[in-house]
């Protein structure tokens, strides 16, 4: 079986969980090929040295506004064009590589009518608050023959109502796909801050977080979620800051951290749960999925959700998380 994996390029989370899925498929004896774009393709090339990552059209998503309807509306035509282009690119790869199966991690155009085409998602029912957008999403999913959900099927699952299989046939819950694993090697410390996601919201959160982190009486490390060659943030900071951490480094940091502050992207949550970490979760503004997941994690008792990053009081959130404070 020759499988083509095509993770979306909206941040690094899709590439991370696709790497975890690839390990499973290869352990079963399958051959895996890769195609992606943007930051996801860069991550795959770093994690898979010597492997070919075929180039797909990039979505180049940005969230300049807290109003997600506006963000989507201003980019929708461009995204539709990208879907058509990636569909043509997928057809070419199927022919050139002899692909038997496609697993598309949230790329609507990566399917083929003559090849088993699987859509990997934790969102069978996204929260759009806009019926036409929900209808278009459902129509796009109809092009795939199967749906793999990286979660467990029970009611306490991480993805909650987002992955409700009602209304869909051929839904398979394949279990969580955490990318990171417990790894010793870093001395224990208090707080790991993980920045991620599309610009300019990533930078806005960084600018909010850094001075609040500096005011804590705690040992802190920050991973900015940027390419290694990116310039450092302005100013002096009394803690370690790195632009990028590879899988082994990030696994070691997360293993050693007592608490975490991060976005509530689904791939991040899978890693946090797998390593048993408590976290302050700050959804990307306007991303209803992340808002829901952060609130669900808080209700499950292992996180504190801060729903408005502009009103973040990190010290207070950490007091709520720890039951007293850190440091």
Q: What do you see in this structure?
A:
The protein is 37% helix and 18% strand. It is α/β, with parallel strands linked by helices and 327 residues long. It folds into 2 domains: 2-173, Glycogen Phosphorylase B (Rossmann fold, 3-Layer(aba) Sandwich); 189-322, 3-Layer(aba) Sandwich (Rossmann fold). The strands form 2 sheets. Strands 3-2-1-4-5-6-7 form a 7-stranded parallel beta sheet, with helices on both faces. A 6-stranded parallel beta sheet has the order 10-9-8-11-12-13, sandwiched between helices. Helix 1 crosses helix 2 (38-47).
Relevant terms:
Rossmann fold; 7-stranded parallel sheet; 2 domains; 327 residues; 9 helices; 6-stranded parallel sheet; alpha/beta
CATH structural architecture of the largest domain: 3-Layer(aba) Sandwich
Which strands sit side by side, in order, in the main sheet? 3-2-1-4-5-6-7
The helix/strand series, from N terminus to C terminus, equals EHEHEHEEHEEEHEEHEHEHEH
> What is the CA-atom radius of gyration, in angstroms?
19 Å
How many strands appear in the DSSP assignment? 13
Question: Which structural class best describes the helix and strand composition?
Answer: alpha/beta
Output the CATH class name of the largest domain. Alpha Beta
**Low-pLDDT regions:** none
For the record, give the distance between the C-alpha atoms at the N and C termini, rounded to a whole number.
51 Å
The helix content, as a percent range, equals 25-40%
Average of per-residue pLDDT values: 91
The number of domains = 2
The biggest sheet, with number of strands, parallel, antiparallel or mixed sense and barrel status, is: 7 strands, parallel
Strand percent estimate: 15-25%
Looking at this structure, what is the CATH superfamily of the largest domain?
Glycogen Phosphorylase B
